Amino acid sequence: MNVKIQKYDPSTDAGPYYKTYNIPWKKNITILEVLVYIHENHEAIAFDYSCRGRVCGRCSMMLDGEPVMACYTPVGKDRDIVLEPLRGFPVIRDFIVDKSKTRDRIAKIEARVRSKLLVQSDITAKMDPDLAKKIGNLEWCCRCLSCIAACPVINEDKDQEKFIGPAGIIAIGLRYYDPFDEGDRVVEAVQNGLYECIMCGKCNEVCPAAEIDHLGVYSELREEAKKKGLEP
Amino acid sequence: MATKEEKENTGVSRREFLKNAKLLAGSVAGGMAIANLAAAGTPGDENKAKEIQIQGSTVKVPEPVYEVYNTDILVLGGGFIAVSAALEAFGQGANLMMVDKGPFGYSGGFGMNWDNYITSITDGEMAYKFNFWYSEGLCNQKALKAVFTHMPNHRIMVDIANRGSSAFARTKTGDLFKIPMPGQEMVEHGFSRHESDEVKRQGINVVDRTMITNLFMQDGRCIGAMGIHLPTGAFRVFRAKATILATGPCTWHYGWISVSPISLGSPDNTGDLDAVALRNGARITGCEFFANDLISIYPEGLAASYNGGIGADDINYAYICDKNGDFWMKDIPKSEMNRGLFAREVAKKILDGKGSPNGGVYVDCRSDAILDGLRDTYKRNVKPYKDLFGIDVQKDMLEVAVEWYESNAHPIIDENLATDIPGLYCPAGGGLRGAKSGGISLNMSAASLAAINAVKFTEKNKINKISWQPVYDEFTRLYEILGRKVKNPIRPHTVRHSIQKASYKALGPIRNAAGLESSIKELVRIRREDLPRMVVSTKTKVFNTEWKEAIENYNMIDLVESMCRAALMRTETRGQHYRSDFDKRDNENWLCNITVKLVNGKMQLEKDPIVCLDYTPDQVKKLIDNKFRA
Ligand SMILES: Cc1cc2nc3c(=O)[nH]c(=O)nc-3n(C[C@H](O)[C@H](O)[C@H](O)COP(=O)(O)OP(=O)(O)OC[C@H]3O[C@@H](n4cnc5c(N)ncnc54)[C@H](O)[C@@H]3O)c2cc1C
Ligand code: FES
């Protein structure tokens, strides 16, 4: 298979450029295996990974223009592919991008708002198991930020100020369901662009966590917003 | 900037230099071989590159340029232990800084966002007794007791909840789902992402994508650390009054399939600072012990991935079977099961010829009941296995292999979690766990205690004069690796795969003298023949992954050799260390630890008596031969 990859070393290259390598295809070959093959058999390239199981979020990148997790995406048949770094993030070198700004923004928004710290009895008290499961599902967001790379609102309108993006709304959703949280997460969701979202479902398609029902969360938040008269 | 006097100190005569350069060819451990190479000159002048000669070839090493950071507490690493230590020290009001090789929050085992099983202490004294028993008598009793009795009961779970986890698993009636253990209990569904978020929210200073490559030593004391900022290649020096070593286990050495070793760990886990501590005079111990799970090895790209595969462990083992479909472990009561027994059972099956073609066994998930009971982490992989990779675990048994997820090789500590090097603390503590592996409650409690002790120590660690020579030496060592040119170069990944192969052959679930000896021989050969020829093919300083790999290889080989040598020396079976040629526990000869140290660049192993507090060696022997009784 021919693999065309985008390379860029800011210390030597005027700008990003493409280079094509021919590698042998095998059954179930993953994108990560493709990259390791090129690195070991053709020439050194810079890419990042860790868990090989779509939970650390380090290997997200673009395959033929769509965000994927390199570790968990097989190339089904012998065909040519194009690989590029994750769209919308500053490139450090080749496939290594800096996600820290977005990640830190989500970390802040996901902070629990609560007047008093939890004590043991708060945690051991009964909790509806379905609710625990519902929150648990959103916990699988690994901050790979594929959803942000896929989001037409963020990428086409180029307006990150109005819309925090799918991963951010999911973080707000997690606290919205969290019975220990005392903040007004509906206001926060609206403030962070709940209604900028066009409900296209792209985020849900590219998200490596099947547990997260993005549109379901947005819809629930919108319903609550409507009740509160926050609908634009 | 160095003063004039210091500048003069950096001059090294050519003879001295060549003497050092020659060392590289000998069987000297790790990267200390070319220390003292830095030549005199104005620091910071990049144009004044020096040519140095190694093995007959010329390497251009630029004049050292470096950044200096200053803090009271320096935490090395960004994983579970580092974060717990940092949050504790920060809570004590300390001025601190964390340095992480990976992107913070994504790095190490900790950077994987899976549903953690969280063990929390419910009765410290009992937890101590149980962990002492589980350590098969080898733990440092003083340190273990200090750690377990330091942490207030239930605080671990409450802390984790307060940092953001709220969806701990529940029973059908909504009660907290708990797995009881003596003095501890386990709950499911902590997510480590909240821990790293908390660090960011508190405003703790994290310097990430910065690989520490050496300690900053002064007259035998640790006054910080140094290393490279990977995105730019900038050399960074961190000065600190106390340093906490928390760079994780060394697991990335154990074999290689396609994109990973047979380990569920992270590529960040290369044992860097354990090797560095060893080379700076600390003794390390626990090298022969590790912890394992059984994880699927197909498809190859997901091999041994806990989060991408399907596996089994000492808590969930009823669905493990041999090649004949015999679920031989299912009748072992949970109360009697532990990781050591688990690993030995698997090893024996393989030795009996009832294992799988690739040296493992199987898991059988063909019944709905088993599928239902799988850990969530595994269960979520069943569908994509079928849809994406065409592997249907409801139709076929799945081959699983013994992987390494934890290594016990760490600098030896005392009851304050202080290492042999004043100013350096190590919560993962060599000797703390004995033959048992870590786990979250031990790790977090030890991290918290180490942080408190380190904060106390900052008041004592004052230096009157500083020499920057170690900075020059380390800078030169790293840039020699980057610039090296030789006749028959080998790329770093090739050298690494040779180390991984040697490790896999010797350090698996079944060990014997022949296998260990042959791997040690191979490691000595790699050190002599391959390491000096290891060449970084692209010379860029911007995120040069090969440069990083090459530097790590020096650390990895030191640790793997320590592991092989200790495993060879321990002629008995204990914990996960199973010797097919000595298949019984031998308390008469081996109720002791093995320490590894470097003497004139050579590895020296010694028996070290166990550290006693509540139990004498005779009492220990009796206690560990019996079942655990509360
Ligand atoms: C997939 C998986 C599942 C597990 N499941 C459980 C479980 O359910 N329950 C449980 O109790 N335990 C579990 N464990 C074990 C537990 O996670 C580990 O014991 C724990 O992560 C160890 O923490 P650590 O801080 O020592 O290492 P890590 O979390 O691996 O962190 C090491 C850190 O050091 C950094 N580092 C490494 N080298 C350098 C360097 N040279 N310079 C600077 N920084 C460096 C890394 O970037 C990383 O931030 C699991 C582990 C894994 C990987
Ligand atoms: S390597 Fe962790 S998500 Fe791909």
Total helices of chain B: the number is: 18
Largest beta sheet: strand ordering of chain B: 9-5-4-13-23
Q: What oligomeric arrangement do these chains adopt? A: heterodimer
Structural class, judged by helices and strands of chain A? Answer: alpha+beta
Shape of chain B: globular
Written account of the structure:
- The complex is a heterodimer of chains A (232) and B (630).
- Chain A has ten helices and seven strands.
- Chain A is an alpha+beta fold and 232 residues long.
- In chain A, the strands form two sheets. A five-stranded mixed sheet of chain A has the order 2-1-5-3-4. Chain A has a two-stranded antiparallel sheet with strand order 6-7.
- In chain A, 49% of the residues are buried.
- Chain B has 18 helices and 25 strands.
- In chain B, the strands form seven sheets. A five-stranded parallel sheet of chain B has the order 9-5-4-13-23, with helices on one face. A five-stranded antiparallel sheet of chain B has the order 17-16-20-19-18, covered by helices on one side.
- In chain B, a hairpin with a 4-residue loop joins strand 11 (221-229) and strand 12 (234-239).
- Residues 1-44 of chain B have low confidence and may be disordered.
- At the A-B interface, helix 1, helix 2, helix 3 and helix 4 of A face helix 6, helix 7 and helix 11 of B.
- The structure holds flavin-adenine dinucleotide and FE2/S2 (inorganic) cluster.
- Flavin-adenine dinucleotide is lined by residues 76-82, 99-102, 107-110, 112, 114, 116-117, 119, 211-212, 246-249, 264-266, 268-269, 272-273, 306-307, 405-406, 428, 438-440, 443 of chain B.
